[in-house]
């Protein structure tokens, strides 16, 4: 990927654009591409998903950047924090400050590092109660004053009359605060709060003011990734007239200990577990700019990041660069759709390009899962890996649209494995550290999918070794029993059915990469393990179930039961019984053939289910019958009709999902966006195809939801998807052509897309029950016949 940047500066109505090479695109960034990217950028609404359970943030960031500078409306205690996983909820009426790190759409959380709050007038040192304005430093705000764009956020803090503007670079967050004339201006730094705040979560922090006015510091927390240290360096565009650094130890209760009091110890340096800094600037005649760099390694590295990535004082130029970075990334797809559909599509594409995040300093230093410092010499290290989610569609979308980035992503996974004390690939990692959240070894299909689809530039031998090591590490998730028995016994490991099914799929993807590399022995071993899904299948009940170590199924059995302690992870038997993406044809056979398979799929979608049934499982949302679009185990299910010769039913279910589960408003996501997975599902489905089985070279065909989409797939090639007529009166596919020739099958090959060409759908009012129904027309499966 070229490091050449695009700069867009406004001079009246003129825009000057530098030429550059794009990841996933070839040649120069032309004026036409700039126009496409700018139009796409203007369609993005970062507020989508900030209400309900979407868990997105509205603040400023750049594609895959280290900084996510966003407002925080609350950081409640862990038991009450679910809706504030991104620090912000659209329904809140006050802001407690702007912090520099956030997850987008996660179901669990941490971060909220280096919180700043501009204050006009008197300074309070506690956030205060949102229900009692004036009780602390937080301020009320109105959504009417908010501006949320890709790379920029602004809001008026009504209690102070301060206009706060935010933008971001890759490692630096930029603030611009306009204070009321004649009012003393202050900036408060609070190193105590964290998203999903735990009592005593901050183990230790330090802050100091250097002779040149640079403020640096670090804090160590015991949150989701225990022992995480993050450092920062901060500079102001105006000199301070005074400052205070305080340790508010009385606010921290740790193992029954309360500190001695609110004691300012030193105005130049302070250590403790409850640090607050107040920086005073007097009455300002011009806006105050603040720039903050972060580092997962050290204060010195944070200063180096600030020096290199944060030179100068030109907020508008930095904002233009952030806009240009997004225009560049979004220009990879050009769609023809009504305004609302454009907003939904490009916001989804935007959300899909937020993670994984850069987690490396300008000198190449990064923190590994061993907590040690490592150095990347010829690649960029990325972290923030919600792998249970993103292997399904978000990472395959990057392989398709930005394959050059995928190379660095995979090299990062391999580097993390090499630094792992356990010698395995990441499971759910951020800022280089491991959380062990969720199940499976889903870094394996991320790597396999990229390799099968032609991504190179990484050491495939090292990658395969890492994949095998991860799939063979007995202590993880009871892999020892899985390798011995062919399933995970529920009396030895919770959620045994889910783990059996997900391990079997991961094994299959590993086998595909081994096969492509000519490693026949490795491929045979894991191809055999891929059939272990059959050990979870109970033909008597017609559902997947967990077995005991003695081989019997656990009793009693309720296919509607979900939650920790059940057979399944964030799901029930109705949802997980479809999780055999590597062998859908085998599952169809187990269920009794096409008709029974389709009938059971219909029963899944058409069931009458009270959402209160899942009130104890936060993540199961977006119900259509038992189908739960708000959680990942359901995401491939609507496409399974293709495998049973009923593609018209896939088309109908996709419209049902798109119409009910997505909207261009703050509560427009039916569940956690999960670092872009929910959004990537939307992007693929809108384009008309979906990667049901990452690790294969095929995409199942659904139906498009945009009239025309041009994918710039590299080397000057464009793949166009078009549909006529596309409206609610014509929801079904009548005919499909690929490059002008009839396409009778319900799958596309990756090579057909990246070669360029056109996929055209002729839509009609009634279902076509002939197109795509032949066995030879169906997507591949382990057990499928393919002439």
Automatic annotation (TrEMBL):
GO terms for biological process: carbohydrate metabolic process; glycoprotein catabolic process. InterPro entries: 6-hairpin_glycosidase_sf (IPR008928), GH-type_carb-bd (IPR014718), GH92_a_mannosidase_put (IPR005887), GH92_N (IPR041371), Glyco_hydro_92 (IPR012939), PNGase (IPR050883). It comes from the Bacteria. GO terms for molecular function: carbohydrate binding; peptide-N4-(N-acetyl-beta-glucosaminyl)asparagine amidase activity. Keywords: Signal. It comes from Rhodanobacter fulvus Jip2. GO terms for cellular component: cytosol. Residues 44-295 form the Glycosyl hydrolase family 92 N-terminal domain. This is Alpha-1,2-mannosidase family protein. Residues 1-33 form the signal peptide. Residues 301-764 form the Glycosyl hydrolase family domain.
């Amino acid at each position: 990927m070229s490091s050449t940047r695009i700069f867009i500066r406004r001079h009246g109505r003129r825009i000057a654009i530098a030429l550059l090479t794009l990841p996933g695109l070839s040649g120069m960034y032309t004026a036409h591409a700039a126009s496409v990217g700018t139009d796409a950028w203007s369609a993005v609404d970062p507020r989508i998903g900030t209400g309900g359970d979407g868990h997105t943030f509205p603040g400023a960031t750049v594609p895959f950047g280290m900084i996510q500078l966003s407002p925080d409306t609350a950081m409640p205690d862990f038991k009450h924090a679910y809706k504030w996983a991104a620090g912000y909820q659209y329904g809140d009426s006050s802001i407690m400050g702007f912090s520099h790190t956030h997850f987008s759409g996660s179901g669990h959380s941490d971060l909220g590092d280096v919180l700043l709050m501009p204050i006009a007038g008197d300074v309070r040192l506690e956030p205060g109660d949102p229900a009692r304005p004036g009780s602390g430093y937080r301020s009320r705000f109105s959504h009417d004053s908010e501006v949320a764009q890709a790379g920029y956020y602004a809001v008026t803090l009504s209690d102070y009359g301060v206009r706060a503007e935010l933008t971001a670079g890759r490692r630096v967050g930029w603030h611009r605060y306009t204070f009321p004339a004649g009012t003393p201006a202050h900036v408060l730094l609070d190193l105590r709060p964290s998203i999903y705040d735990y009592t005593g979560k901050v183990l230790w922090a330090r802050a100091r003011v250097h002779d040149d006015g640079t403020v640096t510091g670090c804090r160590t927390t015991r949150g989701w990734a225990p022992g995480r240290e993050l450092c920062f360096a901060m500079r102001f565009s105006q000199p301070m007239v005074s400052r205070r650094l305080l340790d508010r130890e009385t606010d921290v209760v740790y193992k029954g200990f309360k500190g001695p009091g609110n004691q300012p110890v030193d105005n130049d340096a302070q250590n403790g577990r409850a640090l607050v800094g107040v920086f005073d600037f007097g009455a300002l005649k011009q806006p105050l700019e603040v720039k903050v760099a972060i580092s997962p390694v050290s204060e010195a590295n944070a200063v180096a990041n600030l020096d290199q990535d944060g030179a100068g004082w030109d907020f508008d130029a930095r904002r233009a660069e952030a806009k240009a970075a997004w225009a560049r990334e979004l220009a990879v797809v050009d769609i023809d759709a009504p305004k609302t559909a454009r907003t939904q599509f490009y916001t989804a594409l935007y959300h899909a390009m937020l993670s994984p995040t850069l987690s490396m300093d300008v000198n190449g230093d990064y923190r590994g899962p061993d907590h040690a410092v490592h150095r990347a010499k010829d690649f960029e290290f990325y972290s923030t890996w919600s792998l249970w989610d993103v292997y399904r569609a978000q990472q395959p979308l990057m392989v398709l649209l930005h394959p050059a980035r995928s190379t660095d992503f995979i090299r990062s996974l391999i580097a993390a494995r090499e630094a792992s004390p356990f010698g395995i690939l990441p499971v759910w990692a951020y800022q280089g550290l491991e959380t062990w959240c969720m199940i499976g070894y889903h870094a394996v299909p991320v790597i396999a999918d990229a390799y099968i689809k032609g991504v190179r530039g990484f050491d495939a031998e090292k990658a395969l070794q890492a994949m095998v090591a991860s799939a063979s590490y007995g202590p993880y998730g009871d892999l020892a029993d899985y390798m011995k028995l062919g399933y995970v016994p529920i009396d030895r490991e919770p959620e045994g059915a889910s783990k059996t099914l997900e391990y079997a799929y991961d094994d299959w993807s590993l086998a595909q990469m081994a096969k492509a590399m000519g490693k026949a022995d490795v491929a045979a071993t894991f191809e055999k393990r891929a059939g272990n899904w059959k050990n979870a299948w109970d033909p008597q009940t017609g559902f997947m179930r967990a077995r005991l170590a003695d081989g019997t199924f656990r009793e009693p059995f309720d296919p509607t039961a979900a939650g920790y302690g059940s057979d399944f992870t964030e799901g029930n038997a109705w949802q997980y019984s479809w999780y055999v993406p590597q062998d859908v044809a085998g599952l169809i056979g187990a269920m009794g053939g096409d008709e029974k398979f389709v009938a059971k799929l219909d029963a899944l979608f058409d069931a009458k289910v009270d959402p209160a049934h899942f009130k104890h499982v936060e993540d199961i949302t977006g119900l259509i019958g038992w189908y739960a679009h708000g959680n990942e185990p359901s995401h491939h299910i609507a496409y399974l009709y293709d495998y049973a010769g009923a593609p018209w039913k896939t088309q109908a279910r996709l419209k049902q999902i798109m119409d009910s589960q997505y909207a261009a408003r703050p509560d427009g996501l039916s569940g956690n966006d999960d670092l872009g997975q929910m959004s990537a599902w939307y992007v693929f489905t809108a384009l008309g195809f979906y990667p049901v089985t990452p690790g294969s070279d095929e995409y199942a065909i659904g139906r498009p939801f945009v009239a025309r989409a041009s994918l710039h797939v590299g080397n000057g090639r464009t793949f166009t998807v078009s549909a006529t007529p596309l409206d609610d009166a014509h929801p079904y596919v009548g005919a499909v052509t690929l490059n002008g020739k009839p396409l009778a099958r319900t799958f596309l090959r990756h090579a057909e897309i990246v070669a360029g060409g056109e996929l055209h759908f002729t839509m009609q009012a009634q279902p076509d029950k002939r197109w795509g129904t032949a066995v030879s027309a169906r997507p591949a499966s382990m057990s499928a016949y393919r002439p």
